[in-house]
Amino acid sequence: MAPKVLMVAEKPSIALSIASVLSGGRMSTRRGSTEVHEFDGTFQGFHVHYKVTSVIGHVFSVEFPANFQDWTVTDPLDLFEAPIHKVESNPKAHIGRHLSQEAQGCSHLVLWLDCDREGENICFEVIECTGFRVNNSRRVYRARFSSVTEKDITKAMSNLVEPNKHEALAVDARQEIDLKVGVAFTRFQTNYFQGKYGNLDSRVISYGPCQTPTLGFCVQRYLQITTFKPEKFWAVQPYIIQKGYELKLEWERNKLFDSDVAGMFQKLIMEDGIVEVTGISEKQECKTRPSGLNTVNLLKVASSALGFGPQLAMQLAERLYTQGFISYPRTESTSYPSSFDFRGTLEALVKNPAWGSYIQTLLADGYLKPRSGTDAGDHPPITPMCSATEDMLGTDAWRLYQYVCQHFLGTISPDCKYLRTKIEFSVAEEIFHCIGQCVTIKGFTSIMPWLGVNETNLPQFTKGEKIEISKVDLYEGKTVPPDYLSESELISLMEKHGIGTDASISVHINNICERNYVQVQAGRKLVPTPLGISLIRGYQCIDPDLCLPDIRSFIEQQITLVANGQANHSLVVQHVIQQFKRKFSYFVKQIDEMDALFEAQFSPLSDSGRLLSKCGKCLRYMKFISSQPSRLYCGTCEEVYYVPQNGAIKLYKELACPLDNFELLICSLPGPQGKTFSFCPYCYNSPPFEGIDTLFGASKAGGSGKLGKGAGMPCFLCPHPTCQHSVIAQGVCGCPECNGTLVLDPVSAPKWRLYCNTCNCLVFLPEGAHRISTTKERCSECDSIIIEVDFNKKTTPLKDGATLHIGCILCDELLHSLVEMKHGKYFSKRMGGRGRMRGKGRSGYGGRGGRGGRKLEDPKMSFRGF
DNA sequence: GCAAGGTC
């Protein structure tokens, strides 16, 4: 059997391109975690079987181990010394397993990851997953390609090299530094300020070496605006009438900040009354065509001209790319490779009705080579790949695609040429001028009309000519502050200072919006919020480095030493981490300075919120703080209790939890399918029973069993044996869809329903009943809890107008006929037909945990026969 | 609930 060669690309589209080129299109493709393309060919002179597949970006990301995950237990300072480990970035995609399976039986591995540091790092992630290098007879190669073209792919294939460990280690270093610094500061700030103020309006007060300087730029502009002092100025504006045109003359002095002096000039000029033409000059000017389009410039135009935020712009560009309309949209390069096939690209677009005729002219008259821009060695500039119409793309994608096309055509069109005429005048020894512009060659501005030169015609003048002044105005103006930073300006600043990459700039901008540090206002201007301003001003007081862009360049410069092999990875990491640790300690020590700014902006927890429910410890009312993260605050005990987020919270009939005496609350999640459930604020935050491994609202906590803060145990997960609100009392039967238990919704009247305490399954009970409640009895047939229904007198289905009915919703014929099941995911409506459900004999807690009380019975509830 | 970097 022919030896097998595994090739791995960074994304599925590249795997497809590589396989297509190397197989000449003759390959078979099968699905897996990502697609695998297979074909036969030759490798180093041997006949081999190729398998080409891909990862989806990084396979792993770094994290702290579980014992450093609890915000309340871990001192953020310890994070600097904490171990870190790699976890799969997207466990659901099973990329690790996929690579390991596909590597089985392969003798060679060829790495086709993008040719940058990150790509080099992913190379080693792939090597780790495939288990290569364990066995010396298996070889690992790196393909270096500068574009996904047939030429480059074949060239890379015949010039295979080794992956670069130094570059990969530089990325490891960056990951560790970013994680430790970001998480330490974020946790400290969040804990400190959220424990003090009730109206911060941000779930997390984050810090990061990219996001914070990004915010810094916005606040810096804001501070320029607020500290701006306007000044009045004056300008003399004489008017003349020449050949029937009225012309305003521009003053050589432009403006003066003294009204008396300006007034004096006005008087002098009025007294003279005659201007003399002292000079006429004509100059040929040139406005150069653009160079190739890179990501950052695309994002800037998208924001300033199309009104698309960077995130939307990238989404649209990504889609255009995967659909084959434009080339890879994440590139720094603005210069085209010398081999680039411009004619081919033009021919691919020539049929387009929007600019077909323009392209025909270019092809006929000869297009130009683009100006040389910068070549970052990644991907070529963003270029249209095939023709499209608005109908094919939809409005937004079309507008972006249209710009990409116009920009591309602009790059190979002639420059714009125009004649600039300046007429100089003199009056009372003061000099004035006016300017005319006349386009001689439109060039690229005919396809990018918004960049066109404004034409202004001037009437004829002759040197020495004397003209009477028709009037002399004294213009009074005042200087104005700059506007808020536009998103497009911010992108320029980020690029200039190396904050983020072409792929991540949009993420950082989005971040500072989501954290409520800035708001995007009309015209995509970024206006910092009181929170954003307080943070940056605080850093400026304590340690300005923390919010300056240099913090990123410092990290970059340090890890570049690793990438170049000039410094040892661990030593660099240690050095940088120690520096940040010192900065962190100082920041913590001086936090009062930042706090003074917060005090002026925000209200203390004790002043926030409304009284809602009683604390079980001191029996006084606690305050409900509705701003994110919503929580209860007991002013007497000075304790904070988080509540389920995103739901409406209210008091539950002044009932109290038998375990701790805290008053119960009701949470209603939004939407008609939203659960409504009761919870005890204390139990919710500190589940009292062992063995509860399902938490409500816990995010990707995984199976670690660690209880995340703000995620917890509502009554529907509580195994309390006698409390009337627990799942033991309110659970009716096993969920037909999952391992959960169907629980009676306590406040669903009159549309009584059961919901699953684990998944989204919903079951509607007889509508219009006065009361539906669980009993302590179980069905002799199926072991479900017997329910008691008190029907409405007018609508009761019972004989002789009786209203009370007791039975099992599965086995009682009447009840069963009135029950209806609904599930969002799999079926919209499913009437209770017989014998269609799986019998799942279990409920929430049987056989597990419950060590705190008696062993919980498994009531063996099921939907048998439903 | 945390960073920044890939990519979807």
UniProtKB/TrEMBL annotation:
Biased composition (Basic residues): 830-841
Top EC class for this record: isomerase
Source organism, top-level taxon: Eukaryota
Compositionally biased intervals (Basic and acidic residues): 854-866
Gene3D superfamilies: 3.40.50.140, Topoisomerase I, domain 2, Topoisomerase I, domain 3, Topoisomerase I, domain 4
EC number of the protein: 5.6.2.1
Entry keyword set: DNA-binding, Isomerase, Topoisomerase
Signal peptide: none
Topo IA-type catalytic domain location: 164-584
GO molecular function, one term: DNA binding
Domain Toprim residue range list: 4-147
Example GO BP: DNA repair
Pfam families in UniProt: Topoisom_bac, Toprim, Zn_ribbon_TOP3B
Transmembrane segments: none
Catalytic activity: ATP-independent breakage of single-stranded DNA, followed by passage and rejoining
GO cellular component, one term: nucleus
UniProt-annotated stretches for the region Disordered: 830-866
CDD domains, alphabetized: TOP1Ac, TOPRIM_TopoIA_TopoIII
Family: Belongs to the type IA topoisomerase family.
Function: Introduces a single-strand break via transesterification at a target site in duplex DNA. Releases the supercoiling and torsional tension of DNA introduced during the DNA replication and transcription by transiently cleaving and rejoining one strand of the DNA duplex. The scissile phosphodiester is attacked by the catalytic tyrosine of the enzyme, resulting in the formation of a DNA-(5'-phosphotyrosyl)-enzyme intermediate and the expulsion of a 3'-OH DNA strand. Releases the supercoiling and torsional tension of DNA introduced during the DNA replication and transcription by transiently cleaving and rejoining one strand of the DNA duplex. Introduces a single-strand break via transesterification at a target site in duplex DNA. The scissile phosphodiester is attacked by the catalytic tyrosine of the enzyme, resulting in the formation of a DNA-(5'-phosphotyrosyl)-enzyme intermediate and the expulsion of a 3'-OH DNA strand. The free DNA strand than undergoes passage around the unbroken strand thus removing DNA supercoils.
Name assigned to this protein: DNA topoisomerase
Source organism per UniProt: Actinidia chinensis var. chinensis (Chinese soft-hair kiwi)
